[in-house]
Each structure stands twice: as structure tokens, then as C-alpha cells.
Design goal:
9 helices; about 75% helix; about 160 residues; globular; mainly alpha
Length: about 160
């Protein structure tokens, strides 16, 4: 299980001048096919939203799961379809997150995603570049990537 402290450590490493750029480049090199897939699949996002999604997906989620070596894009797409269905069924970001949290193995990482996408009135101005559609796309992609990483970690533990 990824802890809040581990997430904070990743964020701190990424913010440091001596390690941040190296970590970003390593992640983009290692998971380039995923980012190509995500970019092509997210044509409706504005550039700022796309950058925000990549920062969250690569630099936090993928960095947290250091055992992820390769990505099965077809399987991630299947997970995305399930997460989209949940969103369409519950119709709001907040109620969808409530469902996502029920019995979830990576609660701290999912909480990080929720905090990155759901804002109070004070923070809303700072994040005004995020559209409702952009928030939904980023939420589903992030949740699906965490789901995939959990599955992959569990398979490796069984071996």
C-alpha cells in the first residue's frame, strides 16, 4: 500500500532541482507508450489539462509503483471503461469518488487524485484551467492506472 508519506516523498523529489528533472525524464522514457496512448485518447483536453494529467499520472502514480515495468494498454483501456461506467452511473465527481473509495486498496493514492481534482472555493481560481470534462478524463485515467498498478503488484506478490 502506498502511504501519504511515500506520495509526499515523491512530490518532494520531483520538486528538487537536482532530482526532479531526472525523475521526470526517466518516467517519460520508461512509460512513453502509455503517454502516447493517453495523449491520443485525450484529444479533448486543453494543453494545461494534458500537462496536469501527465504530471499526476507519470510523476506521482507511476513513480509510486516502482514495480510497474510495462503497461498493457488494452487492459488499462478495459479498466477505464469500467471507471467511465461508474462515473456515468453516479453522474457527479464527488459521488463517483465515494464509490471508488469503497474498500479500495490504495486509499491514500486515490485521495491524492481526489485532492488534485476536487477543490474548495479558495483553490478553485488557481485551478480554473480544469474543465468539467478535463476533470472527468483525468480522474478516470488516474483511477484506471492505479487499478492497473494494484493488479500488477498483486500478481507479482503471488509469484
Amino acid at each position: 500500500m502506498i502511504t501519504e508519506q511515500q506520495i509526499d516523498n515523491i512530490i518532494s523529489s520531483l520538486e528538487r532541482k537536482d532530482t526532479g528533472e531526472i525523475l521526470r525524464q526517466e518516467c517519460f522514457n520508461k512509460f512513453g507508450p502509455y503517454f502516447d496512448y493517453a495523449k491520443n485518447d485525450s484529444e479533448i483536453l486543453f494543453d494545461e489539462e494534458l500537462d496536469y494529467m501527465f504530471s499526476m499520472l507519470c510523476l506521482i502514480i507511476l513513480s509510486a509503483f516502482d514495480k510497474v515495468e510495462a503497461l498493457d494498454l488494452d487492459h488499462i483501456q478495459e479498466l477505464e471503461e469500467k471507471n467511465w461506467e461508474t462515473l456515468y452511473t453516479h453522474k457527479s465527481i464527488k459521488s463517483t469518488f465515494d464509490v471508488y473509495f469503497e474498500g479500495y486498496e490504495e486509499e491514500d493514492l486515490l485521495a491524492y487524485v481526489e485532492d488534485a481534482l476536487v477543490f474548495d472555493k479558495e483553490s478553485e481560481e488557481e485551478m480554473e484551467f480544469l474543465t468539467n470534462v478535463g476533470t472527468e478524463v483525468i480522474m478516470v485515467k488516474a483511477k484506471s492506472l492505479i487499478d492497473y498498478s494494484i493488479e500488477l503488484s498483486n500478481v507479482k506478490l503471488e509469484k
